[in-house]
Amino acid sequence: MTITIGREFGSGGRELARRLSEELDIAYYDSEILREIAERTSLSQSYIQEIIEKRPHPSFPIHVVRTFHTAISPIDEQANLIYQEQSATIKDLANKSDAVIVGRCADYILRDIHPFRIFVYADMESKIKRCNEKDTWHENLSERAMKAKILSVDRNRKKYYSFYTGNTWGAKENYDLMVNTSKVEIASLASHLAPYIKSLFV
Amino acid sequence: MTITIGREFGSGGRELARRLSEELDIAYYDSEILREIAERTSLSQSYIQEIIEKRPHPSFPIHVVRTFHTAISPIDEQANLIYQEQSATIKDLANKSDAVIVGRCADYILRDIHPFRIFVYADMESKIKRCNEKDTWHENLSERAMKAKILSVDRNRKKYYSFYTGNTWGAKENYDLMVNTSKVEIASLASHLAPYIKSLFV
Fold it and tell me: How far is CA B198 from the centre of its chain?
């Protein structure tokens, strides 16, 4: 049983993943994946985090024919290397045991083993509210700044997903279930969702 | 408790609606709505069905500024009249009792009472399979013809929804839950989904 969770920033996708893994008593991977990759690539975890969040974007205008630009910048090369390592790690982890895996194009990377693919989203108002309540980094952002941050993080996720999968992030055809968490208690959602997912893997 | 279900043709959305209504022991409206409208408008049910499926499309090119074209064709006028009657009917029914309502922009029409809005979709292969298994009208269509029919019905639903709501049919922000039924048994889905929806309305 493998569950992948894509999620908009602030939608509670990570909490849903954690709770689902608890309900189903299976592994949960998120920052753990980063650590594993860091070990494999001998790069620092924070550096990888940065790369994963910011990269990749094509380093040349898209109207330029690619074959004329075989030269790849060292940073792009590094981002690609990390993606390769990450893919191998995700496959290893999914083969090792049942798991919930958050983000990282895992739905695409694991497509051959047919994971249950969830996408979690919410309206902006509730995402801002959720981020402010959490405020992991004690940033105390204004509503305006928080909205800008949410949009920016999701823009990068979309770019990243589209670059490595060729698919559209958050487009329904790439997922088995899309959940709007705007008016939902994640704990309740997880407890109802878990038995359904379990029934699909019997 | 009001549940609205939008659905791609052949995705099993109507079956899900019927089963949810059974699980939750609440009303189910689909062709019933049509009958009600027929009574109100004194038009035949089959004619209304036809109008709802084919209409509306603007009868003038979209680049023409609308205010210069106040003349509306009699058929558009009729379609608008039916939409008005339909809206009133759907509101009446939802006020009268808990209900599952399929299609007909009900998610939009009932937005003030915050229904639980489901959208049901599936990949083309499984939609063709489901349609062929059902074959309500014993058409015995080829795979190619069935695909064309599915695309055509959904094109009309999209046009209809967009015309009357100004929103995009099947776009995640308009729904609380989007379910891909490609690899799913509808009966099992309904039995798991019902208690979750019930918990949201407590």
Answer: 22
| CB neighbourhood size of A143 (10 A) | 13
The rounded distance, in Å, linking the Cα atoms of A25 and A18 is 10
Residues written for chain B? 202
CB–CB contact B175 A180 (8 Å): yes
Domain boundaries, position B183: 2-200
Using CA atoms, how far apart are residues A121 and B202, in angstroms rounded to an integer?
Answer: 23
CA angle A114, A159, A100 (to 5 degrees): 35
As a whole number of angstroms, the distance between CA B25 and CA B99 comes to 9
The ipTM is 0.80
Taking an 8 Å cut-off on Cβ atoms, the answer to whether B192 and A189 are in contact is: no
Residue with tokens 């509670």: A12
Query: How many Cα neighbours within 13 Å face the side chain of B187?
Result: 0
How many domains in chain A?
Answer: 1
- Structure pTM? 0.82
Q: Which residues of A touch B23 (CB under 8 A)?
A: none
Chain segment A169-198, per-residue pLDDT in tens = 999 999 999 999 999 999 999 999 999 999
**Per the domain annotation, does A63 fall within a domain?**
no
Is the CB of B196 less than 8 angstroms away from the CB of A193?
yes
- Nearest-CA distance B165 → chain A (Å): 18
Say if residues A169 and A108 touch (Cβ distance below 8 Å).
Answer: no
Closest CA to A116 of A100, A103, A105, A104: A100
> CB within 8 A of A102, min separation 6: which ones?
A4, A5, A7, A13, A14, A17, A28, A29, A30
For residue A202, tell me if it sits in a domain. Answer: no
R_g over Cα of chain B: 17
User: Which residues, 6+ apart, have CB-to-CB distance to A1 below 8 Å?
Assistant: A24, A26, A98, A99, A116, A197, A198, A201
Residue for token digits 């083969």? Answer: A95
- Condensed to tens digits (0 to 9), the pLDDT of residues A126-169 reads 999 999 888 666 777 888 999 999 999 999 999 999 998 999 99
**A13, containing H or E segment:** helix A13-24
DSSP A68: G
The encoded tokens of residue B55 equal: 């209409």
In a domain, A141, yes or no: yes
* CATH number of the domain that residue B55 is part of: 3.40.50.300
